[in-house]
């Protein structure tokens, strides 16, 4: 880890003792040289992590900035979404008796962070923590489609698409078209792209600001699939996703500009 980062964190830790601290107090508490503390405070202030408080021209102190509160909210949402989503996943699983999963992005991969298995004698299995490339499977593709265009372009420039199955997307052109289709219809569909003999449907989970933070999906054996069954899965999964949005505090009327997918 960068030594500058370690020292900056040490300065931030000092504020656990007192809300406002002077330069001298920060030097004493951190044990760092005054020039180092001064330099790092300037950087922390520039990024909004620390705010300068001027009581008088001779009495200058520092306190933690609201930027840290933003980060705290992000962390809370990341912890809370699983707790909020789980009851709806259980209800969806009981209704369909199919594998229901929750997926997020980490380091340009999709990670299955939660799942509820079906009770069928012969059933699909996806392990918690299983990783998948963003170009294969309904949930990974949906999470990719939810990203900003610039992030997608950067990913497409460096990705090496591997044929995991015969149905895996073959090239960047196909992937771009798939992203367009997902954004248009508001959900993602896959047919044995990552797991053989498996069909998948996934919908986005939004936070209170309308940002996609996860995907809720249903996977079904190809042997159990029919067009009618697919329609039921889409309807029920969409309903579960909407209920999670509501519990997450997202109101499409208050921040529609954040919505990437069709509100269908």
Task: Summarize the topology.
Elements: H1 3-13, E1 21-22, H2 23-30, H3 34-46, E2 50-56, E3 59-64, H4 66-96, E4 99-106, E5 109-116, E6 131-133, H5 138-145, H6 149-158, H7 172-185, E7 188-191, E8 198-206, E9 212-221, H8 227-248
Antiparallel strand pairs: 1-3, 2-3, 4-5, 4-9, 5-6, 7-8, 8-9
Helix pairs in contact: 1-3, 4-8, 5-7
N-end to C-end Cα span: 45 Å
The radius of gyration over CA amounts to 23 Å
Helix content: 40-55%
CATH classification class of the largest domain: Alpha Beta
Tally of DSSP helical segments:
8
| Main structural class | alpha+beta
By CATH, the superfamily of the largest domain comes out as GAF domain
Q: Percent of residues in beta strands?
A: 15-25%
Number-wise, the strands total: 9
Task: Give the mean pLDDT.
Answer: 88
CATH topology of the largest domain: Beta-Lactamase
What pattern of helices and strands is seen along the backbone? Answer: HEHHEEHEEEHHHEEEH
Number of domains: 2
Précis, in short:
The protein has 264 residues and is of the alpha+beta class.
Mind explaining what this structure looks like?
This protein is an alpha+beta fold and 264 residues long. The chain folds into two domains: 62 residues, Winged helix-like DNA-binding domain superfamily/Winged helix DNA-binding domain (Arc Repressor Mutant, subunit A); 185 residues, GAF domain (Beta-Lactamase, 2-Layer Sandwich). The two termini are 45 Å apart. The protein contains eight helices and nine strands. Helix content is 44%, strand content 22%. The chain is elongated, with a radius of gyration of 23 Å. The mean pLDDT is 88. The strands form two sheets. It has a six-stranded antiparallel β-sheet, sandwiched between helices. A three-stranded antiparallel β-sheet has the order 1-3-2.
